[in-house]
Each structure stands twice: as structure tokens, then as C-alpha cells.
Write a structure and sequence with these properties.
166 residues, mainly alpha, 8 helices, 43% helix, globular
């Protein structure tokens, strides 16, 4: 198992407990980011089983189309937008998606953590500016947002517009 871990970059525990599916999509895409295949579209096709998706195999299609179809399927069925966390050139298939699987090499973005003191300061500031009723309304709005999806090859993300007050 250690040899398999060294060659894949996937830790042994993850290899042993692996189950196909769309959970942890970004991490699985990172695993595949260094893959090399004979046919360019095979990189995406080799991930169908890992993600448990059933898509037609269209040999001769461009790599960007095969990867784009796979990523659309992942986002559409799981609502997991971590697949949109990539660094590199955008795809001709869909500009929200990467042109290459290698765009997932970089670790996922992690926002900087706040110290306990900073969180308390921000919390106090919010208490003075936002009513419980307004916070509850925002929470309900966020709770009822639809999941991200693709329609007609366009990514549709949920959105909230806030009125601007001077």
C-alpha cells in the first residue's frame, strides 16, 4: 500500500476506504491532476468510475469537451462547486471550467483563519449594525437557495442581490 501511496500521492487510509461517488470532488480532481494518458480525452474518461458517473465515451472529442462534460455532471448532480476552484487556463467548452486537469494541482483555496479576538470584534460590530430579524431573514434566504447547475452549457449559480443604500 505504501508503494501505491507513493506512486499516486493518495494516502493509504484514503485508498483503503475509497468509495466511488461525488464526495470530495476537488480532492479527487487533484489526484488526477498529474495523470498522463495516450488519448487526450481518456483523462476525463478515466474519472467516470471514480465519480460514479455514466456519460457517453466519444472518442475523438477534445480533451476540454470530455473534461467539461465530466465537471458539468459532477456539479449538476452533487451541487459541489469545489470543482470551480482551479488555477490555469479556462476551457473553450465553458469559461468557468479549466482547460486541463492539471489546473487542479494547486491545493484548494483556504481562507485565512481569524483569531478568537478578531472574531469577537467582528461579532460585536455586527451586533451593533444587524438586527436579529435581518440576520434571520438572510439565513432563511441562504438556506433556500437552489444548488448550482448547468443548463444549456451555462453554469447557473444561486445569487442574492442586496439593495445599495447611501
Amino acid at each position: 500500500m505504501q508503494e501505491l501511496e507513493r506512486s499516486t500521492g493518495i494516502n493509504t487510509r484514503t485508498l483503503v476506504t475509497f468509495r466511488p461517488g461525488m464526495r470530495d470532488a476537488r480532492e479527487k480532481l487533484r489526484w488526477a491532476s498529474t495523470r498522463v494518458t495516450t488519448l487526450q480525452e481518456d483523462i476525463a474518461y478515466s474519472l467516470f468510475g471514480i465519480f460514479g458517473v455514466h456519460l457517453p465515451v466519444i472518442y475523438g472529442e477534445k480533451r476540454q469537451n470530455a473534461l467539461g462534460r465530466l465537471l458539468q455532471e459532477i456539479i449538476a448532480h452533487s451541487g459541489d462547486i469545489t470543482a470551480l476552484d482551479w488555477v490555469g487556463q479556462s476551457s473553450n467548452f465553458n469559461s468557468c471550467l479549466p482547460a486541463e486537469i492539471s489546473s487542479y494541482k494547486a491545493p484548494p483555496y483556504t481562507p485565512p483563519s481569524l483569531s478568537e479576538h478578531d472574531m469577537q470584534d467582528l461579532n460585536s460590530t455586527l451586533r451593533n449594525k444587524v438586527t436579529v430579524q435581518l440576520a434571520s431573514k438572510l439565513y432563511t434566504t441562504l438556506e433556500n437557495l437552489s444548488v448550482p447547475r448547468f443548463a444549456n452549457a451555462r453554469l447557473q449559480l444561486p445569487c442574492i442581490a442586496f439593495p445599495h443604500r447611501s
